[in-house]
Amino acid sequence: MTTPLTHDPIELARAQWTKRGWSSAADGMALVTSIMRIQQELLARVDAELRTFQLTFARYEVLMLLEFSQRGQLPLGKIGERLQVHPASVTNVVQRLTDDGFLRRTPNPDDGRSILATITPSGSRTARAATEHLNQHVFSNLPLDTADQVEIYDKLTPVRQAFGDFA
Fold this sequence. Notes:
Elements: H1 9-19, H2 23-50, H3 57-68, E1 73-75, H4 76-83, H5 87-99, E2 103-108, E3 111-119, H6 121-139, H7 146-162
Antiparallel strand pairs: 1-3, 2-3
Helix pairs in contact: 1-2, 2-6, 3-5, 3-6, 4-5
């Protein structure tokens, strides 16, 4: 872990934006930069916790998507669509999970051109254990009270929708 800075670099950048005549964009720059910095920090914390399970967040997301699916399986294209990631990334993650025994890849009987990823019992146990761990060490330990978490989520939802994250 790094030593915290003695000043807020984003606030300093906001002051510089204003000084250079970009005051109409300064608040937006500060917000975007803050969200990106928080995303980096959260991803690092989640990945550090998931290392115990030999998972990354991307691999965990695939396991959980399959764990939540009705039959424990989905076509690779549907996985990419639901997680909003490039098909090549899905193929890579699914292959690593398959190599670790967490998934099986099989031809899709409904579409001979696609592949199904199916969660194995080992993958299901790992997904559940990793979720319990994340719930305890990350999701329940944010430096915000529940009301603030809900308020921020509610404020960011229309932004995600405006960017086309969902309809």
